[in-house]
Each structure stands twice: as structure tokens, then as C-alpha cells.
Amino acid sequence: MSDAPDSPVAAPADDLALVKGAADALTQLRRRFQDAIEEVVVRNGEATVYVARAAIVDVARYLRDEPKLLFNLLSDLCGVDRGLEADPRFEVVYHLFSIPHGYRLRLKTRVPESACEVPTLVGVYPTAEWHERETFDLLGIRFANHPDLRKILTPDDLEGHPLRKDFPLQGY
Amino acid sequence: MSSLRYSNVIELDYAPQQKIREMLREQSALDNAITISMGPQHPSTHGVLRLELVLDGETVVSVKPDIGYLHTGMEKQMETKKYQQNIVITDRMDYLNPMGNNLGYVMTVEKLLGIANDIPPRAQTLRVLLTELQRIASHLVWLGTHALDLGAMSLFFYCFREREKILNLYEAVCGGRMTVSYFRVGGLPYDVPPNFTRLVREFLDEFPAALKEYHALLTNNPIFQKRTRGVGILSGEDAIALGVTGPTLRGSGVAHDTRRAEPYCGYETYDFEIPVERDGDVYARYLVRMREMEESWKICRQALDRLKPGPIKADSPKIVLPDREEMKQQMDALIHHFLLAAYGFRVPPGEAYHAIEGSKGELGFYIISDGTERPFRCHVRGPSFVNLQAIPKLCQGALLADVVAIIGSLDIVLGEIDR
Hints:
The complex is a heterodimer. Chain A is α/β, with parallel strands linked by helices. In chain A, 19% of the residues lie in helices and 26% in strands. Chain A contains three helices and seven strands; from the N terminus they run H-E-E-H-E-E-E-E-H-E. The longest helix of chain A is centred in the last third of the chain and has 12 residues, at 128-139. Chain B is mainly alpha-helical. In chain B, strands 1-2-3 form a three-stranded antiparallel β-sheet. Chain B has a three-stranded antiparallel β-sheet with strand order 4-5-6. Chains A and B meet through strand 3, strand 4 and helix 3 of A and helix 2, helix 4, strand 4, strand 5 and strand 6 of B.
């Protein structure tokens, strides 16, 4: 992503204390999954944890069941095409929310174009089923072991994945 | 006449048919099941939802929802438009809750810009007031159509009578009735008309009597209760696992409301309750929404009381358009106006997710900025999309007529599901 030299407002300072409850959650998570946690970013008062693809199911299950965290609601799941030149090209983004504690946490998994597949989270969060179908439909990211990975929004005869950056806005 | 036999298998006396007859006999009760398609033009699917129903007699064996008929690629479109232009697209997602959609979107952009704390109090209060009125309007459409689906036709007219008053208010505020586009990144584009307070107060004074009428028509109605009690039961655990939010979740005994859990626009300073029902059936969801209208009415009154004159835009000339008068007299205001109108404003690189409590549940916007005037990626977490996923679970084993009640109780809008 390019820099914006004359952006009108400076981005707020990164501060772990800004993130409600996440400091605790992040320390615990780091201790438990040292190898799987690739990077932790805290910005705009939101915490993002980059998780290795293979470990996403274990990390999600841990976050859901650990009594001090209890991230029981997968509030959103979506994919991002970072551009044709980006490597890895895709990301899958999970937004978790803990109803008992009120924490919010974002997980991200990097997905290269050559192996465009992520393990499904349906086993941990049943709500992921449609979100993953949508991500598969619009971005072409496959979810391994998904119970019903079909198109969901676009017509059956549409070829290609509309939210990819190389899919034109009109005239396809 | 004694030789007459009542059987659905016709007795035949030659060999090839014998085989067919045996096959028919082997088929269990499930094989009497037929698959029928409900929708997308069915009036009680609230838009263009198609359900693939497998029925055994009148009992539902399984349901497969089929969506996407209204898919117009809004998320893709948003990547090509400037930040302020995208507000118009959000109106068209959940078209019963446009103010809420505007609010969720502009607050996410404000978070990215770092001006979330600069929105003046008058703008915050008006945002709360208008979104709560919208919640009432949205619930009124739900109530009217839900009752209509179940055969109570007259309620529909009563509900639309009150909703019309709210839409008239919106028309007075911004000219639009359903596609309002009234909130802007950085505040509000212009102030409400001088008679706005009087108009809202008039509506708020009339509304409790109307709500009483709705209760009188439905709440203790034995037919309505028979159609809704014990139908479409969803437990709290299942609801959370399926990602269900909003009144549907609160009808299953989970007191989760984004206005409480992550307050925005100063909701923490308002005095209101989160209605919760334990039964988890269609009737519980009905009661939750009915009580929510009362709570929204309470919030509206408080917002009206604290509405004081003052600025309605953040003091960020590089983001917010200047006033017309200012623009005609001051050079720098004219320059800012030209640059904003011609190029728009740039948003620092980064990402933000912001959720508000829409009328149907958690309405979240996830925006990634690459530092340009247009979002790099904008994803919408529509509550209807997620709540609809509960349909197969809710309908299993129900009667066909209950499916209609269950769809109504989820309060879905297909514009938001398909985007």
C-alpha cells in the first residue's frame, strides 16, 4: 500500500492501552502459539494478529474456549485481494468478539495465489459457513473441509471472482 | 363395492410393473418427501429469497436458502468511488435502515481519519435521534409484514401510518424518504429545519397510543399466539454459534447489544434498557422488537431534550465541506471546497472495523485504506445475511406454515443480504 504524504490527519498513535482488553489477550495468545503468530499490529485502537494458515483453526478454538478470553462470536469473516503485485496476494480477515468480556480482536491469515486455500472455521464457528462461501464466490479463496463450498451470491454461469482486483467493473 | 381398494399403489398384474411396485413399497416415509421451491417471488419471503424446501407432507425435512438475486456488487463499486460518494450506496443496502447504514459507514471512515472524537455534540445527538427513529420505522415495517404473513391484515395499515410520519420527518430533514444519505464523514451536511423539534415531538407524543393499538391487536391475540409460541425455537448457544445478533439474539436470552457493549455516539449517556426474552421462539422475538420500539422512543425523547444549537460539522476543513456563505466570502474556504468537490479527501493508510447496532443486529463496516481518495476494500457485515443462516436450523421439523412465521421473525432485508 502506498504512502500518503499529504493525508489531512495524522493516524492516531499506536498504543496498546487503547485496545480494550486486547493487551491481556495478546500476551496469552503469544505465549500459547509462539510459532503460529507471525505478527501483532495495534493501530487505530484495534489489534490485528497475523496467524499462520495451518494454525488458524487451533488459534480460533483456543480464543473461543479460554475462559479469560471467550471470543464466542465470529462477527465477520472476509477476504482481501491486496493487488496483483502483492505477495502473498490474498488475506482472510476474521473479526472476533467476546460477548462475556466485550473484547474485539482481528485475525488475519495470508494466502498466496499459488495455494489459494485456507482451513475452514465451520467446525469452530458454524456462522463461518456462509461467510466462507461468500469469500470463495467473490475472491476465489477455497476453504479446505468446508461442508458445502458453493457459490452464494453470483449467478452459476458467471466465471471469475468479482472482488479480485483484475476483475473489471463493467464489460466482463 | 367391496373390491374397491384404497391404495396409492395401483395393483398391476404384469412383471415389469411388479418391480416398480416393490420399489415404491420399499420407500420409507422420507421418500414421500417432495422438494418445492418457495420464492423468489413469494410474498412472504420479504424480497427475492428462494427457499428449497424438502417436505414430508406438511412437515419440513430440510431447507436450503438460495440468495443472490439482488447481488449488484456494491462492495466492488465502493472501491471505485470516493469516500463521501459511497454513503449513497450504503442507503441501498438495508433500505429499511438507511440512517443506520449511513452511520456505520461514516463512523468507520471517521475512525480511519482519526476524527471520531471531533464530531460536535449536536451532530452526535441528531445522529442518535435519527437512527433511533429509523429503528422504530424499520420495526414497524417488520411488524406490519410479519402480521400480514400470519393473516392479520389490518395491522399492516396501522404500522405504515406511523412509519409514514417518520418518513415525512426525514423528508423535512433531507428531502429523501428512504434513500436519505444524510450523514457525512465529519458530521452532517446541513442543519435540520427550524420546525424539526416540534415535528419530532408531535410524533413522539402520538406514538405511545399507536404502540398500544398494536399491542391490543396482536400481543394477546389467541390466533397470533398459536402461530408464534413454541415455533422456530433458537437457543442462546446456537444463536451465538450461528453469529445471530440483534433482536433475534436477544429473543434467545442473550443480552448483547452493540450500543451497550461498545457504545458510540454517546449511547452510554442515555438511559435505556436492553429487552431480553428467554423463550427463543417467534413470539419472544416479537416481544423483544415491540419493547425495543418503546426503548427507542425513550432514547428519542432524551435526545430531543439535549438537542442544543451548535455546530454540526467537525472542525476539519480538509475533510468537511465549508458552509456556502463562508465559501463565498473566504478564499481558503473556496479552495477547500474546490479540492474536496474535485478530488475528495485522502484517508491515511490503515484499516478499521466499526460496528453499530442496526435495527436487525450488528451492522459492521470493514474498510481498508491505501492512502488514496477511494477505499481499497470495503466489506459490509450485514446482520440480515448472518441471521438468515439460522433458517435451516429453525425450520427443521416445523410445519410449512411456520416457515412463513419464522422468516418474518428474523426480519431480513434482501438488499443487505445480497449487496
